[in-house]
Specification:
There is one protein chain. This protein is mostly helical. The chain has a domain of 183 residues. 81% of the residues lie in helices and 0% in strands. The protein is built from twelve helices and no strands. α2 packs antiparallel against α3. The radius of gyration is 20 Å and the shape is globular.
Amino acid sequence: MGSTAAQADTSTKTQGSTTAIVVTALALFSMFFGAGNLIFPPMIAVQAGDNFWPAILGFLGTGALLPLLAVIAIALSGANVRDLAQRAGTVFGVVFPILAYLSIGAFYALPRTGAVSMETAITPLFGVEGIVASAIFNIIFFGIALALSWNPNTIMEKLGKFLTPALLILLVVMIVVALTKWTASPSEPAEEFAARPFTEGLLQGYLTMDSIAALAFSIVVISTLRFRGFQEGPALVRGTIYAGAGAGLLLALIYLGLGTIGRIIPNPAQYD
């Protein structure tokens, strides 16, 4: 009787751990997938033309694999990016995290996210533009983001259970519709992609900033899994790595789909 109860309890814990990892992986995917992630793959495909595969593989190297490696690095090295950076020295351990947070925040990623969201969602639908309209939109946009992320222990659940599934459904529908409607052939590659498509793909993938963002996002992943009952040590490390791997796989699949859209889009020269 006691053995049966123990087995049932173990099974419940295993199911709970798996669910927590899946939800966290979905949430991490949505944290990675921002403005540049939507734009870069189809643009690379348009510019790469016949050199699509080396270009997109390069992009996946720094846009999906490198963020996964960053998550693994944080999981193995300690609780945050400073623990990792301090291995290169005290000064570097202070300067690098500051620059990393500024680059994925006020200096680069946040302005890009606000600008792209405004230009792709608001201006085409409502015809509003300009500094005042942009300021109002960004206050509302980032206010909602702040409200959703106020509690770090629940943000992953909100993203993983609700927002990410909706995002994935929209992305998959968009990709499927494009694949069923368009059959255009790839064009000639742009100059830089004709000479070194893989290298250009690597550079463009790095510009998503996810490899740097992963160093910060991993802290949220570790905190969430710890909150969900993962014990310090191997269990927490494995959970973090599994969540990172799940997010990386989703990124790679979506990037391939978006890249295919750019590869078959009619009249690609107008987007070059």
